[in-house]
Design a protein that fits this description.
Blueprint (H helix, E strand, L loop, with lengths): L1 H23 L11 H8 L5 H30 L2 H31 L1 H24 L2 H30 L2
């Protein structure tokens, strides 16, 4: 009975300490800067909601891992095989949670491709409209076509900048 109370208090204390440290003191890795406002916010140590959600899931995984290690260590000290097995199971659960978060991060990277596709389609659309303006002799069509091409270049430059900023935090 006393051992269970000590174990519970130790687990709660470690989880609280670890969670507090991660949420309030440590810098979050793998930030995704979608626009300059987010870059400024991250420099001010405020995080985008999507980043906070990912961080919370990482904290849950880390706390589960620590909880498992503590339980396994208690099982080793007391010789209780049930605690040892449960501790290893919690560590395995933490590994699965981390793998899930890694998969989510990789999926986010893959889903960025539509922005590049939008930029390419806008570039083609602009070239076609510019060519139509040249054939018809319409300066307005030429100007709109050039504007669409400039928008496509801007989108590509923005995606390049996002990739570089992301590379800094990896």
């Amino acid at each position: 009975m006393l051992l269970q109370i000590c174990r519970s208090l130790l687990t709660v204390g470690l989880l609280s300490l670890f969670s507090f440290g991660l949420v309030f003191m440590l810098r979050v890795e793998n930030l995704y800067a979608a626009n300059p406002v987010e870059i400024i916010a991250t420099q001010a140590r405020f995080y985008a909601p999507a980043t906070l959600i990912a961080t919370v899931e990482r904290v849950k995984a880390a706390t589960k891992d620590i909880e498992g290690k503590v339980q396994e260590a208690i099982g080793n000290v007391t010789g209780d095989t049930k605690d040892q097995v449960m501790g290893k199971a919690k560590q395995a659960e933490a590994d699965v949670r981390n793998a899930t978060e890694d998969l989510k991060d990789n999926l986010k990277d893959k889903l960025k491709m539509p922005e590049r596709i939008k930029a390419s389609s806008k570039d083609i659309e602009g070239k076609v409209q510019e060519a139509i303006g040249n054939v018809k002799g319409d300066p307005q069509d030429r100007l709109i076509g050039k504007a669409k091409q400039a928008e496509a270049k801007t989108r590509n430059l923005l995606e390049d900048a996002k990739d570089k900023v992301k590379g800094l935090f990896e």
